[in-house]
Design brief:
It contains 6 helices and no strands. Helix content is 74%, strand content 0%. It is mostly helical. Helix 2 packs across helix 3.
Length: 197
């Protein structure tokens, strides 16, 4: 009888170990799947868009500002709505910058559930609002009405790219840890982001 009870206890312990081990493996797989989806559908595409936007914007300024500075470029766009700088700005905005921003806004709207935060980051909401406001300017330009020329009533979130770069690197690090590989290089991040690692 004693041997039978011991056998049952060993079997029960083995079953419990197998159950909890399987449960742990399933939970780990679910975490890996979510991190992969975050990088593939949200942070990766968003990083590509905001980086391309900054690169294009900087190229526009270098090419069309007389002294290569953003300040001078903006001054000329505001002072001469029909001047060469303003014409260049309209072209770049219509053909390059706004399409990139529209794509970024779509990524945010369609995949906001993949955001790795308890609340929606203000810069993300500001980008969506900026894109919507810029549509008004584009419509005015098409009607030959420069209106409030440079930018929009809702400014582009200048800190957005820094946020996306840091979050992408942080989640890549999490992915590496879950996969058991050496984490990639993570750039210097603000303390509030480091605390979330």
């Amino acid at each position: 009888m004693h041997h039978m009870a011991s056998g049952w206890m060993i079997a029960a312990a083995g079953w419990a170990f197998a159950f909890f081990n399987a449960k742990t493996q399933e939970e780990r797989k679910a975490r890996i799947d979510r991190v992969n989806q975050q990088l593939r559908d949200f942070y990766g595409p968003l990083l590509a868009c905001v980086t391309a936007t900054k690169t294009a914007y900087d190229a526009m300024v270098r090419q069309h500002s007389p002294d290569g500075t953003l300040q001078r470029f903006q001054e000329l766009c505001m002072a001469e709505p029909n001047g060469p700088q303003a014409a260049a700005y309209r072209m770049w905005m219509e053909k390059v910058l706004q399409p990139l921003n529209e794509k970024a806004a779509d990524i945010i709207a369609e995949h906001i559930d993949l955001l790795d935060a308890q609340v929606v980051v203000p810069e993300l909401l500001q980008l969506v609002a900026h894109v919507s406001a810029m549509r008004v300017n584009l419509a005015r330009w098409q009607n030959g009405e420069p209106g409030a020329f440079y930018g929009s009533i809702i400014s582009y979130p200048d800190k957005l790219r820094e946020f996306v770069v840091n979050e992408f690197a942080r989640i890549k690090g999490r992915q590496a840890l879950l996969l058991g590989v050496k984490p990639p290089f993570v750039p210097s991040t603000p303390p509030q982001l480091q605390a979330k690692l």
